[in-house]
What does this fold into?
Amino acid sequence: MQNISDTLSTGAEAETVAADRQSLQRELLDEMTGWSPRDFGGAFKAWHRHALSLVHLNVLTALEAEGPLPMKRLAEALDVSDASATGIVDRMEKRGIVERRHGTEDRRTVLVYATQAGGQVFQDMAAHRRSSLSRVLEELTEEQMAALLVGMRAIHAARRRLFADEDSAVADRGAASSSG
It folds into this structure.
């Protein structure tokens, strides 16, 4: 069987490839996840430019995804003890990346918020990623970019459908357990 990447690189039509769905899926996964150590190095440099450890980036990711979190929930999200989470947040707070505030409803609750500097980390990373991808896209023909755009839109649509299906299933299980 002919490799899809060989076929596409020779300019032949993708529809003529005699590959089964599993082979196509395997090759796509290889292409989509095939980061080299150099690729990882570039990403790590972008993170470390802000002097962030992967743990700090994980904290910011949790705060970006869920908003301000109580210390206990943040510790659970990081899978660390409350004391470890406190130490992590202490170091991040000293760098001005996060801040702690008491809850408005219960002053005993301490919430962790990303600061403007903490939020800027993701904006800087997105700008760096966009710049790097722009250089890569410059190497593609218009036809290749158009095909890639169709594929990326299909992936995003499939992801939205999958998450909608998962959300619906969770809601159905919740309704069933509360009625039974």
User: Anything to note?
Assistant: The domain at 51-120 is CATH 1.10.10.10 (Arc Repressor Mutant, subunit A). The two ends are 53 Å apart (CA to CA). The chain has eight helices and three strands. The chain has a mean pLDDT of 81.
